[in-house]
Design brief:
The chain is of the alpha+beta class. It folds into 3 domains: 13-146, CBS-domain (Roll); 167-276; 302-447, Histidine kinase-like ATPase, C-terminal domain (Heat Shock Protein 90). The chain has 13 helices and 15 strands. Strands 10-12-13-15-14 form a 5-stranded mixed beta sheet. The chain has a 3-stranded mixed beta sheet with strand order 3-4-5. It has a 3-stranded mixed beta sheet with strand order 6-7-8. A hairpin with a 5-residue loop joins strand 7 and strand 8 (143-146). The radius of gyration is 40 Å and the shape is rod-shaped.
């Protein structure tokens, strides 16, 4: 929106700036700029009329035959006006005379200058110039004035946005951590409730197995000493298929035993996964941790994905085991997702008679490695033979690890990176090649 100041010597306008909300990348041309220009041979009397009509004008831009000469601020003109013979000069002499007295250092910036950068440059001026307006060269090669007060207000608004952008993810992360902790306690409680009846089944299976064997021995003793039982007993044995029950009872008990053992391991793994870490790290068995994660995701792996465990000899590692569960779950889940998609694709091609070139595979390798003198690390490498990642996607993952370039949406790999590096003082590396696969390597220091 533009307004004519009504000065006949030169067209004069004020621009209202952009209607967009300010952000960290906002520039000077998005602010309200004053394009009040007059020829340098104009008298102060004519300029005073415009100042009287528009009290917000911070100053006047001086031009000579349309070419930019300089700027005189309203404050500087008023200071000259109160000097001896100032009024006589103001009403009779041209602005060129005033400019010769009032000439000061002028901060001239392009309109594309970020607001925060302009604020820093404005604050570096000498104290007597801090209130002087800034001359802005617009994209149309015209010159305009920016009131420092407007720049201050815009800068404070952006600082508030910057603070919000900086701390809001932390607040969201704190809320998310609290939710996950509450969910972990809830799941842990449910797992405990499941584990109790499983314990009853597990504990009584031994007695049931012993009692059933004793009853079968008793029946065998009856048959041996009473070779001709009554017809009623014979009919009952035929009706219940006693011979089949005698043979199948041990298999049923073994099946119940296997199911109870599997359920117990599954619930225990779920409890460990929901483990809430304490203030200080504690020694933990990483192989046990990996096995628990594989057990939890086994229903997704099924027979489509081959899992190879190359476990080395690892000592107990001081760590926050609950957070490491989350890291291993993030990496293995991502590998499973990629390989399941690949398995579907291979199955599609195999339906046309084409033999699959490879079996989807996840390989977990652990070892103690040395990277320097007196420096020992535990290495956990999780590799898949999936399609691999493009260079562009790998770069996006690396950028998500940076705290300066925080992504809009927090990714599981970025969370894993911070857990390993910031929380454990370790290293989180990955490498990928199209058509070959992806490998993640976690290095944890041994103390």
């Amino acid at each position: 929106m533009l307004h004519d100041f009504g000065l006949e010597i030169s067209p004069s306008f004020v621009s209202s700036g952009s209607d967009r909300d300010l952000n960290l990348q906002s520039t000077l041309q998005e602010l309200e700029l004053y394009t009040f220009q007059v020829e340098i041979d104009c008298t102060g009397k004519e300029v005073a009329k415009v100042f009287q009509k528009h009290p917000l004008l911070p100053g006047v831009i001086l031009v000579e035959k349309g070419n930019y000469v300089g700027m005189i601020s309203r404050r500087r003109l008023l200071e000259l006006l109160i000097l001896p013979y100032g009024q006589e000069l103001f009403f009779q002499q041209s602005l060129a005379v005033f400019y010769s007295y009032a000439r000061t250092s002028i901060l001239l910036l392009p309109g594309t200058t970020p607001i925060l950068t302009a604020m820093q440059l404005a604050m570096r001026r000498s104290p007597e110039l801090l209130a002087e307006p800034i001359v802005v060269k617009t994209e149309f090669d015209t010159y305009a004035l920016l009131d420092v007060q407007d720049l201050n207000i815009a800068s404070w608004q952006i600082r508030g946005i910057e603070t919000q952008v900086r701390y809001e993810p932390n607040q969201v992360q704190m809320i998310q951590n609290d939710k996950m902790a509450s969910l972990g306690r809830l799941v842990d409680g449910i797992a405990h409730e499941i584990l109790d009846p499983v314990g009853f089944i597990w504990g009584n299976l031994t007695y049931i197995s012993k009692y059933s064997q004793d009853l079968l021995k008793l029946i065998a003793a009856y048959e041996k000493n009473l070779p001709h039982p009554p017809r009623e007993i014979i009919n009952l044995k035929e009706e219940m298929e006693f011979d089949y029950i005698e043979q199948d009872l041990s298999r049923v008990l073994a099946s119940i035993y296997t199911g109870a053992e599997r359920l117990k391991k599954l619930v225990t793994s779920l409890q460990n996964f929901c483990h809430i870490d304490e203030v200080y790290p504690k020694p933990a068995d990483l192989h046990r941790c990996l096995d628990h994660i594989l057990l939890l995701i086994n229903s997704r792996i099924k027979k489509e994905i081959q899992v190879i465990r190359n476990y080395g000899h690892l000592p107990p590692v001081y760590c926050f085991i609950g957070q490491l569960y989350q890291v291993f779950m993030n990496i293995l889940s991502q590998a499973v997702d990629v390989l399941l998609d690949e398995a579907v694709r291979l199955q599609f091609y195999s339906s046309f008679g084409e033999r699959p070139k490879k079996i989807p595979r996840i390989e977990i390798t652990t070892a103690v490695v040395s990277q320097a003198v007196d420096s020992r690390w535990v290495s956990i490498r999780i590799a898949d033979n999936g399609p691999g990642m493009s260079e562009e996607f790998q770069q996006q993952i690396i950028e998500s690890f940076s705290t300066e370039k925080r992504a809009d949406k927090e990714t599981s790999l970025a969370v894993s990176y911070r857990i390993i590096t910031a929380k454990h003082g370790g290293k989180f590396n990955f490498r990928s090649q199209l058509g070959v696969g992806t490998e993640f390597e976690i290095l944890l220091p041994l103390v």
